[in-house]
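okkk here we go again. third time trying to get the zinc ion bound version out, last two times i messed up the smiles copy paste (missing a bracket lol). double checked this time i swear
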Amino acid sequence: MGTLATCALCGRDEETSFHALLVCPNAARLWDSMQSVWPLPSRMDITCTGTEWLLHMLVEAQESIRSRIIMVLWRIWYLRNEIIHGKPIPPLDISCSFLSSYYNSYKNIFLSVEEILKGKTPVMECAPPLASSAIQPARPWPAPASNVVALCVDGSYNPLDGSAGSGMILRDDIWTVIFASYRKLFHCNEALDAELQAMKEGLQLATAHSPFPVVLQSDCAVALKMITIDSFDRSAYGHLVSEIRRFLFDREVFPLKVSREQNRVAHCLANFSRDVEIVLLVGWIDRLHASPCWLLKIVILYL
Ligand SMILES: [Zn+2]
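finally!!
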């Protein structure tokens, strides 16, 4: 997603991702209109916390709101590109009804035929706006000590269709994102398998991108136990476990059980990669390339 030095649409400001997606008049109008249809947070409550503002906003939003936020931003970016390329854009109400119907179609994908026949299809989701209550204060994430990095990992597995994904993020003591990554997993038997695969890849990337000791944060007590108990693992994942343990010898690694809430960045990344309907998905952001474009790319692949 390439932005311009000065916004070509309004000419008022530098076209940062925050400006293009929330501040620029066209963007603001669509967001505010959708806020009367969906319980989106008020733009006044969204702060630009730096290049990762979008990631922060999504992490703090309720799961049910997150996908709608992404859809609105995706539409805003699409309309921005249409204008930049000199194309006419549809009226505001057309974009609003497009988003509503698209979201309902997307939700229906997860309903069974029986559920649809029973009338569980949402004809039009018009929840009353929750404004600032859509963003809930999060339980504090346990940041590592200085000169130590924290690796949050999570695996996601859907037993209904066998789809799976992994998500991981490496941060330092002042919350700087060193990298965040997600991957669709194609060979996965169950949730525990996804967790272990996420751990292995996360440690592999963390040791390659930081020289410091690693706090390995996971919300899966079973997986943490498997990699820390000093015995020969005879389970189906014995080989995977021994590969993970190898990192524990090469680098100081401190496994730490965290709550699901504290692990929700990795959880969110894992869910994204699990649910997309494409052949291959690997995503990556780091300090140099941190930008909301990766999330927009994901939602485009979603639709
Ligand atoms: Zn502008």
